[in-house]
Design a protein that fits this description.
Layout (H helix, E strand, L loop, with lengths): L21 E9 L3 E8 L5 E8 H6 L3 H11 L10 E6 L3 E6 L7 H8 L4 H20 L2 E2 L8 E3 L5 E3 L6 E2 L17 H4 L7 H16 L9 H10 L15 H10 L13 H5 L9 H5 L33 H9 L3 H4 L7 E2 L15
Helix pairs in contact: 4-6, 6-8
Family: Belongs to the protein kinase superfamily.
Catalytic activity: L-threonyl-[protein] + ATP = O-phospho-L-threonyl-[protein] + ADP + H(+); L-seryl-[protein] + ATP = O-phospho-L-seryl-[protein] + ADP + H(+)
Pfam families: Pkinase
Length: 362
C-alpha cells in the first residue's frame, strides 16, 4: 500500500447549505438507506446526484460509522475515475450527499439489458476501473465493494467508482473487517483473513468474467453457499470456453485475477503488474487519463439509463414499518442521537481538493 498524508478533517459545519438550495428532479437510484436523486443547484443550474439517506434507517442498520466514514474519505479524495463529492449536509431526518452526476447509469443496469459486453467494451471498462483503483490504493484506501452496481458511466462512456461506505484506510491487521458483497468478495475476506489491494482486484476479475459470460463464476443463494463453491474449486476459463470474439489474453487476464490465493493473484504487487499484462500492455493509459479516447460503449443520452422502477415511489418510509426503524425515528428526537452525525458537512467551494495522485484534506 502507498503511504498517505491524511490529516484530521477540520470542516466548519456552521455554514448553511440545505436541500432548499436544490431543485429535486427525479429518482435515479435506490440504496439501503434511501434514494439517489437527480438535482439541480438553483444558483448555478448545475446538475448533480444527491444521495438522500434516512437517519432512522442508518441507525436501524447500525451503519452510522459507515455513512460518516464515506463522507470523511470522500473529503480526502478527488479523481477523474471516482465519483466525487461536492456537498454534504443534514437535517433532523436525513443525510444528504451531493455527488457528480453520472448520466450513463450503472453497469448493473446495462449488464441486465445487454447480458454481456464485447471484449473491446470490457477492456475499456476495466482500464477505467484500474486507474480508479490505482489512485485509491496509492492513497492507502481499499474500496472492498467493487461490483457493477458501484461502477457508473459518465456522459463520455467512461466508468467511475462510487459508494465508499465500506471502504477503509488499509490496516495490516484487518481480518475482522469482513464486509462486502458475496459473489465479488475475495476468499481471504470471506474467510476472515488479513487482506490488501488484491481483494479489490479479485472483484475486478469477477466483473470481467461476468461481462464475458453473463454470469459470475461462483453462484449461490447465500454467502455460505458462495464461499463453499470458492473453497471447493478454482474456476478458470478454459481455451474451449472462450466466447467468440474474445482473445486468449483476455481469458488469461480474468483467470489470473480470480485466483483464490491472493499470493497467486494478478494485482497483488500493484497496478503496474496489472497494466503490464499482455491484454492491457498496449493500452493508451495517458489518453485514457486525459479522457481523449472514444469509449466503445456510450449510453444514449436521449434514453433514461436508470431503472425506471425507482421512479415509482418517493416515500422514504415505504416498506419500513418495522418496529426497529420506528424506534430509531423516536431516538432522533434526542440531541444525543443527533450528535452521532455531528460533522456531516462538506462544501467543495470552501475546501478545494487536490486532483493529484496524493489524497489530501482540504
Amino acid at each position: 500500500m502507498g503511504s498517505c498524508n491524511f490529516k484530521e478533517d477540520s470542516t466548519d459545519t456552521t455554514v448553511s447549505i440545505s436541500k432548499t438550495h436544490f431543485q429535486f428532479q427525479y429518482v435515479i437510484g435506490k440504496g439501503g438507506f434511501g434514494k439517489v436523486w437527480k438535482v439541480e443547484l438553483k444558483k448555478s443550474h448545475e446538475n448533480f446526484a444527491m444521495k438522500e439517506m434516512l437517519k432512522a434507517r442508518v441507525l436501524a442498520k447500525k451503519s452510522v460509522n459507515s455513512v460518516m466514514n464515506e463522507r470523511r474519505l470522500l473529503s480526502m479524495l478527488h479523481h477523474t475515475f471516482i465519483v466525487n463529492m461536492h456537498y454534504a449536509f443534514q437535517d433532523r431526518e436525513n443525510l444528504y450527499l451531493v455527488m457528480d452526476l453520472m448520466p450513463g447509469g450503472d453497469l448493473r443496469y446495462h449488464l441486465g439489458r445487454w447480458k454481456t459486453f464485447t471484449e473491446e467494451q470490457t477492456k475499456f471498462f476495466i482500464a477505467c476501473i484500474v486507474l480508479g483503483l490505482e489512485y485509491l490504493h496509492k492513497n492507502g484506501i481499499l474500496h472492498r465493494d467493487i461490483k457493477p452496481e458501484n461502477l457508473v458511466i459518465d456522459g463520455q462512456g467512461y466508468v467511475r467508482i462510487t459508494d465508499f461506505g465500506i471502504a477503509r484506510v488499509w490496516n495490516p491487521e484487518n481480518a475482522k473487517d469482513t464486509s462486502g458483497t458475496p459473489g465479488y468478495m475475495a476468499p481471504e475476506v470471506m474467510c476472515r483473513q488479513n487482506h490488501g489491494v488484491a481483494a479489490d482486484y479479485f472483484a475486478l476479475g469477477i466483473i470481467g468474467y461476468e461481462f464475458m459470460n453473463g454470469k459470475r463464476p461462483y453462484l449461490g443463494k447465500s454467502r455460505k453457499e458462495i464461499r463453499d463453491q470458492i473453497l471447493a474449486k478454482q474456476i478458470q476459463i478454459k481455451k474451449n470456453e472462450i466466447p467468440e470474439g474474445w482473445s486468449v489474453e483476455a481469458a488469461d487476464f480474468i483467470n489470473r485475477m480470480i485466483q483464490r490465493k491472493p499470493g497467486n493473484r494478478l494485482g497483488l504487487n500493484g497496478p503496474d503488474e496489472v497494466k503490464n499484462h499482455p491484454w492491457l500492455k498496449d493500452f493508451e493509459w495517458d489518453k485514457l487519463l486525459e479522457h481523449s479516447l472514444v469509449s466503445p460503449f456510450i449510453p444514449d443520452k436521449n434514453e433514461d439509463n436508470f431503472d425506471m422502477r425507482l421512479h415509482l415511489s418517493n416515500d422514504p418510509w415505504k416498506d419500513a414499518d418495522n418496529s426497529e426503524l420506528q424506534e430509531s425515528a423516536e431516538l432522533l428526537r434526542n440531541n444525543s442521537t443527533q450528535n452521532l452525525f455531528a460533522g456531516y458537512f462538506y462544501d467543495i467551494n470552501q475546501q478545494q481538493p487536490n486532483n493529484s495522485d496524493s489524497a489530501t484534506t482540504k
